[in-house]
Write a sequence for this structure.
Protein backbone atom coordinates (compact mmCIF):
# COMPACT_ATOMS: atom_id res chain seq x y z
CA UNK A 1 0.00 0.00 0.00
CA UNK A 2 1.33 3.47 -0.79
CA UNK A 3 1.84 6.29 1.68
CA UNK A 4 -1.33 8.20 0.76
CA UNK A 5 -3.48 5.10 1.36
CA UNK A 6 -1.68 4.30 4.60
CA UNK A 7 -2.18 7.82 5.90
CA UNK A 8 -5.86 7.79 4.94
CA UNK A 9 -6.40 4.40 6.54
CA UNK A 10 -4.65 5.50 9.73
CA UNK A 11 -6.78 8.65 10.07
CA UNK A 12 -3.89 11.14 10.20
CA UNK A 13 -4.88 14.81 10.40
CA UNK A 14 -2.96 18.01 11.14
CA UNK A 15 -2.06 17.54 14.82
CA UNK A 16 -1.07 21.17 15.38
CA UNK A 17 -4.68 22.26 15.61
CA UNK A 18 -5.87 22.55 12.01
CA UNK A 19 -7.20 19.01 11.58
CA UNK A 20 -6.89 18.99 7.80
CA UNK A 21 -6.77 15.39 6.50
CA UNK A 22 -3.10 14.69 5.81
CA UNK A 23 -3.58 12.22 2.94
CA UNK A 24 -4.72 15.14 0.77
CA UNK A 25 -1.71 17.29 1.65
CA UNK A 26 0.85 14.64 0.74
CA UNK A 27 -0.57 14.25 -2.78
CA UNK A 28 0.84 17.65 -3.76
CA UNK A 29 4.02 18.07 -5.80
CA UNK A 30 6.40 20.56 -4.18
CA UNK A 31 10.12 21.26 -3.89
CA UNK A 32 10.22 21.75 -0.12
CA UNK A 33 8.59 20.09 2.90
CA UNK A 34 8.73 21.88 6.25
CA UNK A 35 8.28 20.17 9.60
CA UNK A 36 6.69 22.74 11.87
CA UNK A 37 8.18 22.47 15.35
CA UNK A 38 7.98 26.19 16.11
CA UNK A 39 5.40 25.91 18.86
CA UNK A 40 4.90 29.63 19.14
CA UNK A 41 1.87 29.52 21.46
CA UNK A 42 3.00 30.41 25.00
CA UNK A 43 2.77 27.80 27.79
CA UNK A 44 2.75 24.76 25.50
CA UNK A 45 5.60 22.24 25.30
CA UNK A 46 3.89 19.62 23.13
CA UNK A 47 6.02 20.00 20.00
CA UNK A 48 9.21 20.76 21.89
CA UNK A 49 8.91 17.57 23.94
CA UNK A 50 7.94 15.57 20.84
CA UNK A 51 11.15 16.78 19.16
CA UNK A 52 13.20 15.80 22.21
CA UNK A 53 11.74 12.29 22.49
CA UNK A 54 10.62 11.33 18.97
CA UNK A 55 13.19 12.95 16.68
CA UNK A 56 13.74 9.72 14.72
CA UNK A 57 10.06 9.25 13.98
CA UNK A 58 9.66 12.94 13.05
CA UNK A 59 12.57 12.81 10.62
CA UNK A 60 11.27 9.47 9.31
CA UNK A 61 7.86 11.04 8.64
CA UNK A 62 9.44 14.02 6.93
CA UNK A 63 11.45 11.74 4.64
CA UNK A 64 8.26 9.89 3.67
CA UNK A 65 6.44 13.14 2.82
CA UNK A 66 9.44 14.35 0.81
CA UNK A 67 9.41 11.11 -1.16
CA UNK A 68 5.66 11.31 -1.82
CA UNK A 69 5.68 14.96 -2.87
CA UNK A 70 8.93 14.80 -4.85
CA UNK A 71 10.52 17.44 -2.62
CA UNK A 72 14.29 17.66 -2.75
CA UNK A 73 14.56 19.71 0.37
CA UNK A 74 13.31 19.13 3.90
CA UNK A 75 13.42 21.73 6.66
CA UNK A 76 12.54 21.36 10.32
CA UNK A 77 11.67 24.67 11.97
CA UNK A 78 12.58 24.77 15.66
CA UNK A 79 13.14 27.71 17.95
CA UNK A 80 16.78 28.53 18.62
CA UNK A 81 15.86 28.78 22.28
CA UNK A 82 14.76 25.12 22.43
CA UNK A 83 18.28 23.71 22.75
CA UNK A 84 17.17 20.23 23.86
CA UNK A 85 14.89 19.86 20.85
CA UNK A 86 17.58 21.18 18.51
CA UNK A 87 20.23 18.77 19.73
CA UNK A 88 17.86 15.75 19.59
CA UNK A 89 16.88 16.49 15.99
CA UNK A 90 20.45 17.46 14.96
CA UNK A 91 21.69 14.10 16.20
CA UNK A 92 19.29 12.25 13.91
CA UNK A 93 20.09 14.55 10.99
CA UNK A 94 23.84 13.94 11.22
CA UNK A 95 23.56 11.21 8.60
CA UNK A 96 20.89 12.91 6.44
CA UNK A 97 21.97 15.31 3.70
CA UNK A 98 18.80 16.84 2.30
CA UNK A 99 17.07 17.87 5.55
CA UNK A 100 18.21 20.89 7.52
CA UNK A 101 17.10 22.65 10.67
CA UNK A 102 15.89 26.22 10.42
CA UNK A 103 16.38 27.99 13.74
CA UNK A 104 13.54 30.34 14.56
CA UNK A 105 13.44 33.33 16.86
CA UNK A 106 11.40 33.16 20.06
CA UNK A 107 8.49 35.14 18.68
CA UNK A 108 4.81 34.78 18.00
CA UNK A 109 3.53 33.68 15.47
CA UNK A 110 6.71 31.86 14.33
CA UNK A 111 4.62 28.71 13.75
CA UNK A 112 2.00 30.37 11.56
CA UNK A 113 2.47 28.81 8.11
CA UNK A 114 2.80 32.19 6.39
CA UNK A 115 5.50 33.31 8.83
CA UNK A 116 7.28 29.96 8.90
CA UNK A 117 7.44 29.64 5.12
CA UNK A 118 8.77 33.20 4.81
CA UNK A 119 11.27 32.64 7.60
CA UNK A 120 12.53 29.28 6.32
CA UNK A 121 12.42 29.80 2.53
CA UNK A 122 12.09 33.57 1.95
CA UNK A 123 8.84 32.96 -0.02
CA UNK A 124 5.66 34.95 0.61
CA UNK A 125 2.42 32.96 0.37
CA UNK A 126 -0.17 34.92 -1.66
CA UNK A 127 -3.21 36.46 0.00
CA UNK A 128 -5.77 33.79 0.75
CA UNK A 129 -3.24 31.17 -0.36
CA UNK A 130 -1.60 28.10 1.14
CA UNK A 131 2.08 27.01 1.24
CA UNK A 132 1.45 24.86 -1.86
CA UNK A 133 1.14 28.09 -3.89
CA UNK A 134 4.86 28.66 -3.33
CA UNK A 135 5.94 25.02 -3.71
CA UNK A 136 5.89 24.08 -0.04
CA UNK A 137 4.03 21.60 2.16
CA UNK A 138 4.05 22.25 5.91
CA UNK A 139 3.28 19.56 8.49
CA UNK A 140 3.36 19.87 12.25
CA UNK A 141 6.09 17.60 13.66
CA UNK A 142 3.55 15.49 15.56
CA UNK A 143 1.72 14.95 12.29
CA UNK A 144 5.02 13.77 10.80
CA UNK A 145 5.37 11.34 13.67
CA UNK A 146 1.85 10.03 12.99
CA UNK A 147 2.71 9.70 9.29
CA UNK A 148 5.74 7.61 10.20
CA UNK A 149 3.59 5.27 12.29
CA UNK A 150 0.81 5.21 9.71
CA UNK A 151 3.25 3.89 7.12
CA UNK A 152 4.01 1.03 9.48
CA UNK A 153 0.30 0.27 9.76
CA UNK A 154 -0.30 1.96 13.13
CA UNK A 155 -3.33 4.28 13.19
CA UNK A 156 -3.71 7.48 15.20
CA UNK A 157 -4.91 6.46 18.66
CA UNK A 158 -2.99 8.84 20.92
CA UNK A 159 -2.32 12.53 21.23
CA UNK A 160 0.44 14.42 23.01
CA UNK A 161 -1.03 17.20 25.17
CA UNK A 162 0.51 19.84 27.45
CA UNK A 163 -1.38 20.31 30.72
CA UNK A 164 -0.42 23.60 32.34
CA UNK A 165 -1.70 26.51 34.42
CA UNK A 166 -3.43 25.97 37.74
CA UNK A 167 -2.60 22.27 38.12
CA UNK A 168 -0.31 20.85 40.78
CA UNK A 169 2.21 19.26 38.40
CA UNK A 170 2.17 20.62 34.85
CA UNK A 171 3.09 17.82 32.43
CA UNK A 172 3.08 16.76 28.81
CA UNK A 173 1.05 13.57 28.46
CA UNK A 174 0.70 10.95 25.75
CA UNK A 175 -2.96 9.98 26.15
CA UNK A 176 -5.54 7.93 24.26
CA UNK A 177 -7.78 10.08 22.07
CA UNK A 178 -11.07 10.55 23.89
CA UNK A 179 -9.47 10.93 27.33
CA UNK A 180 -11.59 13.29 29.44
CA UNK A 181 -10.06 16.61 30.49
CA UNK A 182 -10.98 15.62 34.04
CA UNK A 183 -8.54 12.66 33.78
CA UNK A 184 -5.74 14.89 32.47
CA UNK A 185 -6.17 17.22 35.43
CA UNK A 186 -6.24 14.35 37.91
CA UNK A 187 -3.04 12.85 36.46
CA UNK A 188 -1.42 16.28 36.97
CA UNK A 189 -2.30 16.26 40.65
CA UNK A 190 -5.54 18.24 40.48
CA UNK A 191 -6.46 21.89 40.26
CA UNK A 192 -4.81 24.48 42.50
CA UNK A 193 -7.56 27.10 42.42
CA UNK A 194 -11.21 26.95 43.38
CA UNK A 195 -13.09 28.47 40.50
CA UNK A 196 -11.48 27.71 37.17
CA UNK A 197 -12.04 27.77 33.43
CA UNK A 198 -10.32 25.58 30.86
CA UNK A 199 -8.34 26.95 27.95
CA UNK A 200 -8.07 24.37 25.18
CA UNK A 201 -5.00 24.97 23.01
CA UNK A 202 -2.70 27.93 23.54
CA UNK A 203 -3.67 31.36 24.88
CA UNK A 204 -3.49 33.09 21.50
CA UNK A 205 -5.66 30.84 19.37
CA UNK A 206 -7.24 28.48 21.86
CA UNK A 207 -10.84 28.50 23.08
CA UNK A 208 -12.23 28.49 26.58
CA UNK A 209 -14.61 25.91 28.00
CA UNK A 210 -16.17 24.84 31.28
CA UNK A 211 -16.68 21.27 30.11
CA UNK A 212 -14.35 19.13 32.15
CA UNK A 213 -15.85 15.97 30.64
CA UNK A 214 -14.90 17.01 27.09
CA UNK A 215 -12.43 14.71 25.32
CA UNK A 216 -8.92 15.08 23.92
CA UNK A 217 -9.07 14.93 20.12
CA UNK A 218 -6.47 14.51 17.36
CA UNK A 219 -5.97 18.28 17.37
CA UNK A 220 -5.80 19.02 21.10
CA UNK A 221 -2.35 20.45 21.79
CA UNK A 222 -2.88 21.83 25.27
CA UNK A 223 -5.15 22.16 28.27
CA UNK A 224 -4.46 25.20 30.43
CA UNK A 225 -6.38 25.65 33.65
CA UNK A 226 -6.92 29.31 34.58
CA UNK A 227 -8.76 31.02 37.44
CA UNK A 228 -12.18 32.12 36.20
CA UNK A 229 -11.46 35.68 37.31
CA UNK A 230 -8.18 35.86 35.37
CA UNK A 231 -8.17 38.92 33.11
CA UNK A 232 -7.76 36.65 30.07
CA UNK A 233 -10.87 34.61 30.88
CA UNK A 234 -12.92 37.71 31.70
CA UNK A 235 -11.92 39.16 28.36
CA UNK A 236 -12.69 35.96 26.46
CA UNK A 237 -16.16 35.85 27.95
CA UNK A 238 -16.92 39.40 26.87
CA UNK A 239 -20.01 39.42 24.62
CA UNK A 240 -19.73 40.66 21.03
CA UNK A 241 -22.14 43.55 21.71
CA UNK A 242 -19.73 44.86 24.34
CA UNK A 243 -16.80 44.61 21.94
CA UNK A 244 -18.75 46.60 19.39
CA UNK A 245 -19.82 49.22 21.95
CA UNK A 246 -16.29 49.61 23.31
CA UNK A 247 -14.88 49.83 19.83
CA UNK A 248 -17.32 52.61 18.99
CA UNK A 249 -16.49 54.59 22.08
CA UNK A 250 -12.80 53.88 22.61
CA UNK A 251 -10.91 53.13 19.39
CA UNK A 252 -8.47 55.97 18.99
CA UNK A 253 -7.33 54.90 15.50
CA UNK A 254 -3.74 54.65 16.66
CA UNK A 255 -3.10 51.88 14.07
CA UNK A 256 -1.06 49.71 16.46
CA UNK A 257 -3.28 46.74 15.63
CA UNK A 258 -2.37 47.12 11.98
CA UNK A 259 1.30 47.92 12.52
CA UNK A 260 1.78 44.58 14.35
CA UNK A 261 -0.57 42.44 12.26
CA UNK A 262 1.59 39.62 10.79
CA UNK A 263 -0.53 39.43 7.64
CA UNK A 264 -0.42 43.20 7.03
CA UNK A 265 3.34 43.08 7.56
CA UNK A 266 3.57 40.52 4.77
CA UNK A 267 1.81 42.98 2.46
CA UNK A 268 -1.74 41.58 2.65
CA UNK A 269 -4.60 44.00 2.17
CA UNK A 270 -6.16 43.76 5.60
CA UNK A 271 -5.83 46.52 8.14
CA UNK A 272 -7.52 45.88 11.48
CA UNK A 273 -7.79 49.57 12.37
CA UNK A 274 -9.93 49.99 9.25
CA UNK A 275 -12.22 47.20 10.43
CA UNK A 276 -12.73 49.20 13.60
CA UNK A 277 -13.49 52.30 11.57
CA UNK A 278 -16.11 50.39 9.61
CA UNK A 279 -17.79 49.14 12.73
CA UNK A 280 -17.44 52.42 14.57
CA UNK A 281 -19.30 54.36 11.91
CA UNK A 282 -21.61 51.58 10.71
CA UNK A 283 -19.91 51.71 7.33
CA UNK A 284 -21.15 48.36 6.12
CA UNK A 285 -21.60 49.23 2.46
CA UNK A 286 -19.46 50.32 -0.47
CA UNK A 287 -16.75 51.64 -0.57
CA UNK A 288 -15.97 49.82 2.65
CA UNK A 289 -16.75 46.40 1.24
CA UNK A 290 -13.04 45.76 0.69
CA UNK A 291 -12.32 46.22 4.38
CA UNK A 292 -15.12 43.82 5.23
CA UNK A 293 -14.04 41.13 2.76
CA UNK A 294 -10.41 41.51 3.90
CA UNK A 295 -11.57 39.76 7.09
CA UNK A 296 -11.13 36.57 5.02
CA UNK A 297 -7.37 37.19 5.22
CA UNK A 298 -7.31 37.34 9.01
CA UNK A 299 -5.64 34.30 10.59
CA UNK A 300 -7.21 35.13 13.97
CA UNK A 301 -3.73 35.05 15.49
CA UNK A 302 -4.87 37.41 18.26
CA UNK A 303 -1.95 39.85 18.17
CA UNK A 304 -4.24 42.82 17.51
CA UNK A 305 -6.36 42.25 20.58
CA UNK A 306 -4.17 40.36 23.05
CA UNK A 307 -0.96 42.26 22.37
CA UNK A 308 -1.11 45.49 20.43
CA UNK A 309 -4.28 47.39 21.29
CA UNK A 310 -3.65 49.89 24.11
CA UNK A 311 -7.42 50.19 24.64
CA UNK A 312 -8.07 46.48 25.18
CA UNK A 313 -10.21 46.29 22.04
CA UNK A 314 -10.50 43.33 19.70
CA UNK A 315 -10.29 43.85 15.95
CA UNK A 316 -9.97 40.05 15.73
CA UNK A 317 -13.50 39.58 17.06
CA UNK A 318 -14.81 42.16 14.61
CA UNK A 319 -13.04 40.47 11.68
CA UNK A 320 -14.34 37.12 12.88
CA UNK A 321 -17.89 38.44 12.87
CA UNK A 322 -17.47 39.92 9.39
CA UNK A 323 -16.12 36.59 8.20
CA UNK A 324 -19.00 34.65 9.72
CA UNK A 325 -21.56 36.83 7.98
CA UNK A 326 -19.77 36.70 4.62
CA UNK A 327 -19.59 32.91 4.77
CA UNK A 328 -23.28 32.74 5.71
CA UNK A 329 -24.04 34.87 2.63
CA UNK A 330 -21.99 32.52 0.45
CA UNK A 331 -19.40 35.20 -0.33
CA UNK A 332 -15.95 33.88 -1.15
CA UNK A 333 -12.61 35.57 -0.50
CA UNK A 334 -11.95 37.96 -3.41
CA UNK A 335 -8.37 38.82 -2.28
CA UNK A 336 -5.61 36.83 -3.93
CA UNK A 337 -2.72 39.19 -4.57
CA UNK A 338 0.43 37.18 -5.22
CA UNK A 339 2.70 40.17 -5.92
CA UNK A 340 3.23 40.96 -2.29
CA UNK A 341 5.62 43.53 -0.96
CA UNK A 342 6.67 42.98 2.63
CA UNK A 343 6.29 46.16 4.73
CA UNK A 344 9.54 47.89 5.56
CA UNK A 345 9.47 47.18 9.31
CA UNK A 346 8.33 43.55 9.02
CA UNK A 347 11.54 42.09 10.46
CA UNK A 348 11.34 44.32 13.53
CA UNK A 349 7.73 43.76 14.44
CA UNK A 350 7.84 40.15 15.61
CA UNK A 351 6.20 39.81 19.00
CA UNK A 352 8.67 38.42 21.59
CA UNK A 353 7.12 35.51 23.47
CA UNK A 354 8.23 36.80 26.88
CA UNK A 355 6.61 40.17 26.34
CA UNK A 356 3.49 38.44 25.11
CA UNK A 357 3.30 36.40 28.32
CA UNK A 358 3.54 39.59 30.35
CA UNK A 359 0.77 41.15 28.33
CA UNK A 360 -1.35 38.04 28.88
CA UNK A 361 -0.55 38.19 32.63
CA UNK A 362 0.48 34.55 32.47
CA UNK A 363 4.19 34.72 33.38
CA UNK A 364 3.62 32.63 36.50
CA UNK A 365 2.60 29.66 34.35
CA UNK A 366 5.75 29.88 32.24
CA UNK A 367 7.25 26.56 33.33
CA UNK A 368 8.64 23.89 31.05
CA UNK A 369 6.50 20.75 31.56
CA UNK A 370 8.16 17.47 30.57
CA UNK A 371 6.71 14.49 28.74
CA UNK A 372 5.67 11.40 30.66
CA UNK A 373 6.90 9.08 27.95
CA UNK A 374 4.82 6.05 28.86
CA UNK A 375 1.36 6.10 27.35
CA UNK A 376 -1.24 6.96 29.95
CA UNK A 377 -3.86 4.32 30.65
CA UNK A 378 -7.49 5.40 31.07
CA UNK A 379 -10.57 3.24 31.66
CA UNK A 380 -13.04 5.13 29.49
CA UNK A 381 -12.82 7.31 26.39
CA UNK A 382 -15.27 9.51 24.56
CA UNK A 383 -14.30 9.59 20.89
CA UNK A 384 -15.80 12.25 18.60
CA UNK A 385 -16.53 11.08 15.05
CA UNK A 386 -15.50 14.45 13.69
CA UNK A 387 -12.05 15.59 14.74
CA UNK A 388 -11.05 16.93 11.35
CA UNK A 389 -12.01 19.29 8.55
CA UNK A 390 -14.55 17.66 6.21
CA UNK A 391 -17.29 15.09 6.59
CA UNK A 392 -18.16 13.36 9.84
CA UNK A 393 -16.95 9.74 10.01
CA UNK A 394 -19.70 7.09 10.05
CA UNK A 395 -19.77 4.66 12.97
CA UNK A 396 -18.90 1.05 12.13
CA UNK A 397 -19.66 -0.33 15.58
CA UNK A 398 -22.68 -0.77 17.84
CA UNK A 399 -23.12 -0.90 21.61
CA UNK A 400 -21.73 -4.11 23.08
CA UNK A 401 -19.12 -4.68 20.35
CA UNK A 402 -15.67 -5.64 21.58
CA UNK A 403 -12.84 -3.74 19.92
CA UNK A 404 -9.06 -3.72 20.17
CA UNK A 405 -6.90 -0.63 20.35
CA UNK A 406 -6.34 0.57 16.79
CA UNK A 407 -9.48 -1.03 15.29
CA UNK A 408 -11.34 1.31 12.96
CA UNK A 409 -14.63 2.32 14.59
CA UNK A 410 -15.80 5.06 12.22
CA UNK A 411 -14.97 5.57 8.56
CA UNK A 412 -15.23 8.25 5.93
CA UNK A 413 -17.71 7.55 3.12
CA UNK A 414 -16.01 6.99 -0.24
CA UNK A 415 -15.08 10.14 -2.10
CA UNK A 416 -15.62 12.44 0.90
CA UNK A 417 -13.01 14.56 2.64
CA UNK A 418 -12.28 13.42 6.18
CA UNK A 419 -10.34 11.05 8.41
CA UNK A 420 -11.10 7.60 9.79
CA UNK A 421 -11.46 7.13 13.53
CA UNK A 422 -9.95 4.27 15.56
CA UNK A 423 -10.43 2.79 19.02
CA UNK A 424 -7.88 4.39 21.31
CA UNK A 425 -8.16 1.68 23.99
CA UNK A 426 -9.25 -1.95 23.92
CA UNK A 427 -12.67 -2.61 25.38
CA UNK A 428 -16.42 -2.66 24.87
CA UNK A 429 -18.45 -0.04 22.99
CA UNK A 430 -20.77 1.51 25.54
CA UNK A 431 -22.73 3.81 23.24
CA UNK A 432 -22.77 5.16 19.71
CA UNK A 433 -24.23 8.62 19.32
CA UNK A 434 -24.47 11.01 16.43
CA UNK A 435 -21.24 12.74 17.46
CA UNK A 436 -19.55 10.55 20.07
CA UNK A 437 -18.63 6.90 20.51
CA UNK A 438 -18.04 5.87 24.14
CA UNK A 439 -15.67 3.01 24.77
CA UNK A 440 -14.92 1.37 28.11
CA UNK A 441 -12.14 -1.03 29.11
S1 LIG B 1 -4.89 49.37 18.33
FE1 LIG B 1 -6.88 49.54 19.33
S2 LIG B 1 -7.22 51.70 19.60
FE2 LIG B 1 -5.56 51.49 18.10
S3 LIG B 1 -6.63 51.50 16.11
FE3 LIG B 1 -6.43 49.40 16.71
S4 LIG B 1 -8.33 48.92 17.77
FE4 LIG B 1 -8.19 51.16 17.67
S1 LIG C 1 -6.02 38.50 14.43
FE1 LIG C 1 -5.48 40.66 14.18
S2 LIG C 1 -3.25 40.64 14.05
FE2 LIG C 1 -3.90 38.55 13.65
S3 LIG C 1 -4.14 38.40 11.42
FE3 LIG C 1 -6.14 38.99 12.24
S4 LIG C 1 -6.16 41.20 12.13
FE4 LIG C 1 -4.02 40.59 11.95
Amino acid sequence: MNLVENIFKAGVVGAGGAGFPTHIKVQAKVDTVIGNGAECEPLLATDRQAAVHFAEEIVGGLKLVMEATGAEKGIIGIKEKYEDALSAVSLVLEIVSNITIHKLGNYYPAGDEFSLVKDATGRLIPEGGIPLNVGVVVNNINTLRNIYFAHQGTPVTNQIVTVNGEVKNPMVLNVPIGTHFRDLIEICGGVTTEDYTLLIGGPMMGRISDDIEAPVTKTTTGLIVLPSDHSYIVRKKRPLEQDIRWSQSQCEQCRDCTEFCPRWLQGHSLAPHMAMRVIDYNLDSEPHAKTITSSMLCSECGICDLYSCPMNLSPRIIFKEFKKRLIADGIKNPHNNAELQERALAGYRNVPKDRLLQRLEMERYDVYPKLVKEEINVGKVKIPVQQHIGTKAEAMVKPGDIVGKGDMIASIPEGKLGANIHASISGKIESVGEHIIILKQ
Summary: Residues 251-257, 272-273, 276, 308-309, 311, 313, 315 surround iron/sulfur cluster (ligand 1) (CB under 6 Å). The chain has a mean pLDDT of 94. The first strand starts at residue 32 and ends at 37.
